Amino acid sequence: MQSGFAAHFAPEQYAASVSQIQTETTGQVVIFAPLNSIMMKMNVFLLVALLTGVSMPGNAQVAFTDNPVYKITYGTSFNGKTPERQNKIWVFAGPQQTLLTTEKDFTGKATYPFELSMINRPANRQELFAFLNEQEAMAASDTALRTQHFELLNETKEILGYRCKKAKTVVNSNTIELWYTDQLPVKGAPTPLGQNLGLVLEQIRNGNNSIRAEKIEKQKPVLPAFLARKTLQTDLLSYRDAIWNSRFTTIPLFTNQVINFSDTSRSTGDVMRFANGTVVVKKIKIPVLDSGCNIFLDLLEQSNGDAYDRTGTVFLIPTGKKQSFLDGLKNGAKTLPVYTNGNGKNYQGVAATTDYAPPLELMRFFTPFGIKQFNHIQLKGKQWQEAVPYRQDITDFAAALNNREVYIGVFIGNYDKGGHKITARLTIHKGGPDKQQQQILPLFNTLNIMEMAGQEYATMFDNEKGLTVNFRINAPLKNAHLLYTTTGHGGWGNGDEFVPKKNTILLNGKIIFDLVPWRQDCGTYRLFNPASGNFSNGLSSSDLSRSNWCPGTVTNPFRISLGDLEAGEYTLQVTIPQGKPEGSSFSAWNVSGVLVAD
């Protein structure tokens, strides 16, 4: 939801609520008589009764008192420039009540959700009514008007023929200047800010963002026709949260899902469990996605018994080819296509072939050391976090999701019976700039998602050939990119987890990427890691820099520009100077690559 003034005046405690009102043929508006606690419990029919003063159940009656009514039209500008076809702010002000709305809302041209915002001057509060969709409506009261404070200045100027005085305040570090007049018998403002000063005819934020009255008209109050529905009373925080969540579509993936290691792990309901319970998969229906939408993946993790930092991934299983990773989950890792490079090992399901596409990685994340489950470990001055949130923009993969039933899975590598607990969801947000959904080609994913079912670790980089993938592009691609995610592993002093190693990628023999992936900010996340080991030098294990990951964080993909690509055969090679094993310890590199293009 977007209102004309909300787009220019953001401070939440004074954020104006707006309304979409179906009016009578006169196009005029009712100004509300004093409201009381009855309003919070009534349906819209009862609201109409309150406004008009007709008899209501229980003989409750409120007289309609506001007359005359002034309609003030406001326009907005930024740095002196006025946007074209803007949604004008409309304020209807009476002696006791003020309605805040916009032209689009008032004339019924807005879409859900919309709000009706009234200033109840006798009670000195704002009455909020939100219509979330055709079925849901709710109400709340906001008393923030009572806490507003202004510096009254001696400056004056004329606006629309009225002498205006100046007031100033600061909201969330924004300097707000208000020009108000007392030459009219009503009070009001284009936002809830300054409602009791007089009639605010101009509001300026930080000297460059202006809301200014363009026209003042005197009208008779006329009742608009409201949708006949019940209005649920709620507290202000719940009200704001409901409006916020109604602005986007939420698709639950997993809720309090345990990911653990157990010989007795079984699929239940719509959740399929594989690899002794360390992999969970669900079939999810994704709606039609608008060209301007943004898609985000959220995941919340807590330890359910495992104290260690673990590799995690959220992945989508492509099913458009003859064989899929789902087949391997069901039938065993050995049934997947094998990649070899001469080092004597077989790597199952890691590289694309003519008949197989590897898992498309949506998010690479790492659990911290024992968050929540081990918060009983006390250190002076440390207040451990209860859960670690991960959030990532996955809009690049919209074409793989749009209007499809897809298999989405989560893996956390662990050998603990309690394991980890996660909640995950997708959120789809409309209203961004139109953009063409990209073509998507998963090329490789060496993260051994079926680790606990025998899938080989990604040790292929001990050979100079590294990982090599051959693929074909059937039609020319515009603005192609390789989304490359890489993390190094080998958890001892000389292991690749703690030793910087250059990653090199070649496309048809030409270097397109040559960089050392390294994270030096791991100490930032200390409060996620109650069970992290502590060393004699005063450092914690979770503080240490690593090969592009930290306990308790997401690892973002590198976006490698490839330009325009012609149709034809291609060879992509990834090489890394992987360290040698020491005893039973060895290094590995989890890398994934997805080709995206317009």
UniProtKB/TrEMBL annotation:
<dbReference type="InterPro" id="IPR014784">
    <property type="entry name" value="Cu2_ascorb_mOase-like_C"/>
</dbReference>
<dbReference type="Pfam" id="PF22252">
    <property type="entry name" value="PNGase_F-II_N"/>
</dbReference>
<dbReference type="InterPro" id="IPR015197">
    <property type="entry name" value="PngaseF_C"/>
</dbReference>
<dbReference type="Pfam" id="PF09113">
    <property type="entry name" value="N-glycanase_C"/>
</dbReference>
<dbReference type="InterPro" id="IPR008977">
    <property type="entry name" value="PHM/PNGase_F_dom_sf"/>
</dbReference>
<dbReference type="Pfam" id="PF09112">
    <property type="entry name" value="N-glycanase_N"/>
</dbReference>
<feature type="domain" description="Peptide-N-glycosidase F N-terminal">
    <location>
        <begin position="250"/>
        <end position="428"/>
    </location>
</feature>
<protein>
    <submittedName>
        <fullName>GLPGLI family protein</fullName>
    </submittedName>
</protein>
<dbReference type="InterPro" id="IPR015196">
    <property type="entry name" value="PngaseF_N"/>
</dbReference>
<dbReference type="InterPro" id="IPR043022">
    <property type="entry name" value="PngaseF_N_sf"/>
</dbReference>
<keyword id="KW-1015">Disulfide bond</keyword>
<dbReference type="GO" id="GO:0016715">
    <property type="term" value="F:oxidoreductase activity, acting on paired donors, with incorporation or reduction of molecular oxygen, reduced ascorbate as one donor, and incorporation of one atom of oxygen"/>
</dbReference>
